[in-house]
Amino acid sequence: MTTPSGEEMPIASSDDVVRVRQVVRAAAAAAGLSLVDQTKLVTAASELARNTYAHGGGGAMRVERATGEDGRKGVRLVFTDEGPGIADVDRALSEGWSSGTGLGLGLPGARQLCDEFGLRSEAGGGTTVTVAKWTR
Amino acid sequence: MTGGADDTPIAELLRSWREPVLGRWIELVGETVHGRLSEAEVRSELTELYGLVERALEGDTAAGDELRAALAEISRGRARHGFSPTETAVGVFALKQSLYEQIRMTRDQRAYSELIDFSSYVDELGLATFETYAAAREQVIADQADQLLELSTPVVRLWDRVLGVPLVGTLDSARAQIAMETLLQALVTTGARYAVIDITGVPAVDTEVAQHLMKTVMAARLMGTHCVVSGIRPQIAQTIVALGIEFGDIVTKATLADALAYVLERSGLRVVGEPEG
Amino acid sequence: MDRVPILKIGDVLLVSIQTDLQDQTVLALQEDLSERIVATGAHGVIIDITAVDVVDSFIGRMFATIASMSRLMDAETVVVGMRPAVAITLVELGLSLGGVRTALDLEEGMRLLGAGLPHAGPAGSARPARPGPALADGP
């Protein structure tokens, strides 16, 4: 279902968080997402990129044009890092909980803002977060 | 589909009785469409279908596909023009009746045995017709819902820098979303300090609708506009309490007039009656 | 790293954010702003985000921090010009900017701080400016 357009960018500094926002904004606009949905996806990407950089010790984001199960077009983002991983995924996804700085809205917030959310993580084995947003 | 080798194949019967069976079919269908389609239209439609049925029963698979496509096209047209499901399905089933009447008249014993197989074949076609009809109706409904969405979220100016958003009809997620975006955009373009969301015309408020209302009010607040929700009818108030929905610190008023009075008062305005005479 | 300029208009400090905010810029702005409030004795801070198309939890938290910080120094903070898409996203994100005041535009923000021109119109001009909606914590 996915056409990987292969655009991958490193997330190594807080500068890259800003670049992630710009890349995701352009991809979301190109995929035809509404302004509100673009903003939601860019905001989610900003949260996740900051997590990747601040908690995962840096990593990468891949942007894909994708099609959802019901045929709607959209954008999928995959964030990966080789960091310490998340020991308690359920807890990290519960609102208001934070493992470091921030209000703890990063993961639950990103999940709230997207149509699709996937998290794979093991202690010591890095973290992969996948989110997608479809056109309405 | 057709009977045994000894019997007259149904396709042959249809061909030899083309004139009376097709004629009666057209007559029967003509009765159900009550002049919404001209006789010539019915005739040309059914003549085409009749020919396709003949060929399909002879084992022509291409004609079978064509028959289904033609039926689908006709049912879609019927659905769009507001024909009832019965009227649409009868159009197909009437072929059975027409043939049955012909067999009874001719007392052709061999044809009777063919009729059962033919009957189930027509039933199958009828069901396919019905499915297309239902799908087409659903499409019509979806299109209308979309149009309604665009039409149904008016934003009106109640006073200087006071907007009113009367919501009418069932608020589902998609509609609430559009209403929210329309309202917030209107705040920017009009510079409104207050907005009154009136839900007098919303038949039911459940947890989801309440959630959307709260999100709208909170988003408007972030932009600097104070929202009031009005039109809380007694039944709605009861539901809200029964469901345990918390409206938080959102200001709610029973009527639009109350809301306007509240907003004017907060803006430091007073309505003063002129002494009569 | 860019630094966001802080302008002074009367006794109000105006911060107009025009760039895509980097986290360090956000932190530097908080610092700069508190120094300027003390140095100028300003009684109001306006953060204009008309040009900002994304506010994530980090930036959102900055508004709340600046508001609490300046309140300690006796200055009111008003965030003005939030775009509809940003507002919807913040609500969806579950971020309630508790204690931050908001206004639709700069003029309205100045009025809230009592620093604008007297408002002319049917609302009457002689009355003191009404406080805008204070943001309470959401559910």
TrEMBL record, chain B:
UniProt protein name: STAS domain-containing protein
Domain (STAS): residue spans on this chain: 152-263
Xref: PROSITE patterns: STAS (PS50801)
Keyword field: Phosphoprotein
Pfam families: RsbRD_N, STAS
Organism: Actinomadura syzygii
From TrEMBL, chain C:
InterPro entries, per the entry: Bact_StressResp_Reg, STAS_dom, STAS_dom_sf
Domain of life: Bacteria
Coiled coil feature spans: none
CDD domains noted in UniProt: STAS_RsbR_RsbS_like
Domain STAS span(s) in chain numbering: 2-113
PANTHER family to which the protein is assigned, alphabetical: RSBT ANTAGONIST PROTEIN RSBS, RSBT ANTAGONIST PROTEIN RSBS-RELATED
Annotated protein name in UniProt: STAS domain-containing protein
Organism for this UniProt entry: Actinomadura syzygii
